[in-house]
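User: Predict the complex.
Assistant: Input components as received:
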Amino acid sequence: MEIYKFAYQIIEEAGRIIRDSIDDELHIETKSNPNDLVTNIDKETEAFLTKQILNTYPHHRILGEEGQGRDIEDEAGTIWIIDPIDGTLNFVHQQENFAISIGIFIDGVKYAGFVYDVMNKKMYHCKVGNGAWMNETQLKPLKNSELKSSLISTNPIWLTKDKLADIYKLIIDDARSTRAYGSAALDFANVAKGITSAYLTMRLHPWDFAGGLILVEEVGGVVTNQLGEPLNILEANSILIGNKSIHDELLSQYFLPHTSLLKKIHTERFKKNK
Amino acid sequence: MEIYKFAYQIIEEAGRIIRDSIDDELHIETKSNPNDLVTNIDKETEAFLTKQILNTYPHHRILGEEGQGRDIEDEAGTIWIIDPIDGTLNFVHQQENFAISIGIFIDGVKYAGFVYDVMNKKMYHCKVGNGAWMNETQLKPLKNSELKSSLISTNPIWLTKDKLADIYKLIIDDARSTRAYGSAALDFANVAKGITSAYLTMRLHPWDFAGGLILVEEVGGVVTNQLGEPLNILEANSILIGNKSIHDELLSQYFLPHTSLLKKIHTERFKKNK
């Protein structure tokens, strides 16, 4: 079976398992801080996906949020980058508005991206070159838009950080309005679908953006870090995505004038993390 | 027919009409500023609801976002407070995530509240004393929670305003995480449903909060302005809602220490507006 179709099937199946257990009591642990949660369902979903993939493709490699493949340092072969539940806080508090995210790369080349909005049963999916889709509906190429007449999304927490707040304040003031949804993968899907025109955040891991990156590029969106550089798919990155026009505007008018500050933040935030 | 059942039916019907025309081209105008939009659908929906109500109840009064009843200055009789489309920016940009909101008051006493998530066909409704419901599912009484382990919602724009930013920064820093959904009525429904634990914003009109106010109180939530006072249903108000515990915490620890600043802002922002 084509890897793309196989991926689609196991993600749908993982989503069905999550929906079936959505009312069960969760076992919740904290990770890096009291608000960085992981549940038994995150772990079980990653284990399920890993088992399915390796049973069928024993030579594929997997990089997953819950521990798979942290030793991967090169892009050789087929790599699956997996977030079993993106938006764990939403999962825990809302029992909705979370996603399974998978990006598949072959020898470093983007192959396919998936973001599955589990509770709404909306699968955002694309095999590179064949268009991006929500279930059976093809997503349209992104229309260009200006910041002042666009909805954007970002986490308000960046406005509480010294120096960084100055950059984000200007953007939020100049945007038509700002949203915060709490799942990076769905934020990418929202940009791909045109629900928002841009999404920006200071730090995502590969599993947060790998699936969405491929979707957004497939509809003509631009995906870079906040210095305008391509994302390294094996490392944490800052994120700036949007239609071509708003991406240019945000990068040139709001981020590049602060290159030295952003470089410093990048160095400080990312040095200890893959 | 009972007013409550009648209201339910005409809101559902208005929602069906909106869904049927969701792909039609909109006529968009601006109101108070370039981001304050109104469409033909806002106006047509208010006209539809007004006609239905007055045909059946000629003596009822209506206060609506799009112009109905701006001369209402007392709470005598039965008053319908209507927002035909709450979250107009979402309606225009997303074609989803907006709501019809109606609160009904009889001689100033809360009678029934409705928030209809049109595209998801989720009707949040309650007749006071009979519980709050999402479609046929009764909403549970709100659980108490602390800010540090809660999701809250607010618009990030408040973090860009001098002085006010200092209050909002502390709250957002101390919350587990912050969301911004872009529809006040749905923000109230989300608190009633437990999707978020609190919602705060600097200024809503009666049509933005009338339906949600009744829903949130029905599940044991607390609804006040940011000075801890009850909302005046005929005037613009600042808003602080949540489960009892987080409302107490936000009010006593974050807002009341800034009473004089908030009073000044209230006076400046609300003096020219009903």
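Chain A touches chain B through 31 residues (CB under 8 Å).
Let me know if you want any component modeled separately.
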